[in-house]
Amino acid sequence: MTRTSPLGALRRLGLAAACAALAFGATTTSFAQGAYPQKPVKFITNFPAGGPLDILGRALGDVLQKDLKQPFVVDNRPGAGGNIGADLVAKSPADGYTVLLSIDTTFTINPHLYATMPFAAKDLKPLMIFSSSGLSFGVGPSVGAKTLPEFVTASKAQASTFASAGNGSPGHIAAEIFANATGAKITHVPYKGNAPAVMAMLSGEVQAGIVATPGLLPQLQAGKLRALAVTGRQRAPLLPQVPTVSELGLKDLEFEVLYLAMVPAATPEPVMQTLRSALTSAMALPEIKSRLATLDMVAVGETGDDAVRHLAASQARYGKIVKATGMKVD
Question: Domain-by-domain residue ranges, the chain?
Fold first, then answer.
């Protein structure tokens, strides 16, 4: 019979414990990496149902549900220029189960417009900038100008009335950019959404408007309104025949809305990477590309530091414009 010394037994016990610990560590690490998501994920959209952000969110949610084997549910929380929904996500647990789908203006323009913000920029971190979309510079039937430069000349001589989807909306900002860059005189008239703004242009209540292209398109196709330009860097997918402001020699009028996803800043990197990877794959699918085109969006796909830099540059630019024009939201 072989006798084992107490020291040898302790050594073997220690080795066995170490091996068990390593095996347990490997198992738990593997589990942690594969654990997300284990329950439904909520997409908080901070603008109303039925809009471009809502439609894009539902399309992406359907794809991610198939990829990650959990439901992705869209929950609309509009109000205060997107601040209400963004604040909800900023104060949610940083576990990847509450994701904000937003447009960039909540982060790039609102801090300059609102006296106080309910959350800080550092509370949220971008996952991805999905896409961008310019706006359409539309005019009503009473406007004689056939080109944007002609309209600028006319508006310098006599103030023009401009419709937008509301105070602080992208169209409002774009109208102020127009006035600030060209010296045109404008009277801004805010409406409660794109639809009433377009109706005001049709009725002659206002002469012009800068609004999202999808809402303007039926009236353009019917010949009841005219688009003089689009504000994006590229021609609009829905209006390929309409020039950009840059093509008309008015590059300072460029304005794009960015569509993005954000999560609480403390969300673990492995969870963020899972979401980024799934979103990147989704953006490459033909059905998502087709959906972007119908929403007049151009794919961007920026993540990480690129997304952070893009948002920071936009915030700096719009801050100067807000200060120069004296815009504010009470």
Answer: 41-133+257-325, 134-253
For the 41-133+257-325 domain, the top CATH level (class) is alpha beta
Asked if 89 and 99 touch (Cβ cutoff 8 Å), the reply is yes
Q: Which two tokens stand for residue 316?
A: 């700096």
Q: Measure Cα distances from 106 to 17, 222, 262 in Å.
A: 53, 34, 12
Q: What is the CATH number of domain 134-253?
A: 3.40.190.10
pLDDT of residue 199: 94
Same fold, 41-133+257-325 and 134-253: yes
Establish whether the linkage from the previous residue to 37 is cis, with ω within 30° of 0. yes
Report the C-alpha dihedral over residues 45, 51, 52, 53, rounded to 10 degrees. Answer: 0
**117-132 confidence digits (pLDDT tens):** 999 989 999 999 999 9
Residue 322: what pLDDT? 87
Residue 95 pLDDT exceeds 70? yes
pTM of the model: 0.82
pLDDT, tens digit, for every residue of 299-309?
999 998 999 99
